[in-house]
Amino acid sequence: MQPSYGDRYLESEVLTASPQRLHLLLIEAAIRHVERTRTAWQRQESDVAFNCLTKAQQIVAEMLASLKMDAAPDLIKQVAAIYTFVYRRLVEAGLKSDEKLLSDALRVLQIERETWAELCGKLGSTSGADASVPPQGRSNSSSDPVGTPAPPRYLTRGFPDDYPMKDAVGNSWEA
What we know:
With 175 residues, the chain is mainly α.
């Protein structure tokens, strides 16, 4: 079977993308699969929902496994805690078929997407797909070197006030 133009484009994009852009593509894929899971649950298509949720879990697990613990261990520990939280939420959502748990994971993934899109924009590896993400908090000062990535927004500015650091069960973001 001949690959479609969309498949060829995606293959070309992946092969030429920077590591930051690849990470952003993973986050976007996880978001797509979470949204497809929600849609499948609403349509009562449990097989489709299971497959989409499993793919989202695999993507988040891969992002967690790919963290390099030797580079900035304190920062990596915080990021690992966030990915662990998202992974747990996805697993719990699948076990309970609970859209609220799925929404928790999706909300964090969307914040993560904004952060990585901003980073890709600062490093100049952005594409048209990232143009829809508003550049929040970008610095235009000349003292901010373009090649130096800023830490993720949620590590420097905190989470929104309406998002608890602990969930109802007592699970925490902190590792």
